[in-house]
Amino acid sequence: MNAGHFLFRLCFTGLAIFSTFRCTNYSTTASVQAPPTLISIVNNGNSNFILKVRAQNPEFIFQGYRIYSGATEALAQNPTDLNLGAECFLAQAAIVQPIEYTFEVDPSTNPNTAGVSCRIFTTLIPGTYISMRTLGLAVNLQDSTSTFRVSIPSNTLIVP
Questions:
Q1: pTM of structure
Q2: What is the C-alpha to C-alpha distance for residues 47 and 107, in angstroms, rounded to an integer?
């Protein structure tokens, strides 16, 4: 057997083995999203609140944040339905960079105040607790569907 024939058979065998186990080049497990840290909440008047948040957006799958409120800390951090919160989708975000955001929580459709990263369209009730979660996009390549994955809950703050 000459060297050329041997190398051909070796490559052909390697290709057959490789195609049997097929490398998919993607993970079947969802990326873990880091929760934001709530720094402060201030009543801005007329049921409007300014919320300071420190967060790190994990990857290109990052979509935004969702705020939850509840009568207790446990209810704010662990709502019965994770889809019930109010979303904030950032138009521009520094990927994988820790940053401090200023969110405005206001049920009206007024334009953003200067310096506000995002407006969350919801009503907060003084004395309730709030918590946030990071939203990430999870894509299923087998059936071409996508859903939001949410992080573990952030810390909580009491609405003033």
A1: 0.74
A2: 8
